[in-house]
Amino acid sequence: MRELIWELCKLPGVSGDEGRVRAWIINQIEGHCTWKVDPLGNLIAYKTGRNRAKNRVMLSAHMDEVGFIITDIAEDGRLRFAPVGGIDPRVVLGRRVYVGEKALPGVIAAKPVHQLTKEQKSEIPKIEDMRIDIGADSAEQAREHVQAGDCAVFHSDSTAFGDGFLVSKALDDRAGCALLIDLIRSPLAYDAVFVFSVQEEVGTRGAKVYPYHVQPDMAVVVETTTAADIAGVTGADRVCELGKGPVVSYMDRGAIYDRQLYRLAFDTAAEHGIPCQTKTMVAGGNDASSVHSAVGGVRTLAISMPCRYLHSPSCVLQESDIQNTRLLLEKMLEKMAVL
Amino acid sequence: MNLEMVLRSLCNCAGIAGEEDSASRCACGLLQEYFPNAQLDAFGNVIAVQEGAADKPILLLNAHIDQIGFVVTHVGEDGFVKIASVGGNDRRLMMAQQLRIFGREELVGVVASKPPHLQLPQEHGKAPDFADLWVDTGLSSGEVCRLLEPGDRAVLCSCFEKLLGSRVSSSALDDRAGVAAVLYALELLKGRRLPVRLAVLLSAQEEVGGSGAKIGAYGIQPDYALVADVSFAYHSGCDRHRCGELGKGPMIGIAPTLDRGMSHTLCETARLEGIPFQTEVMNGLTSTDADDIAVCRSGTRVCTVSIPMRYMHTPVECIDLQDVEASGRLMAAYARKLGEGGCDKCGN
Question: Chain A residue with minimal CA distance to B78?
Answer without folding.
Answer: A231
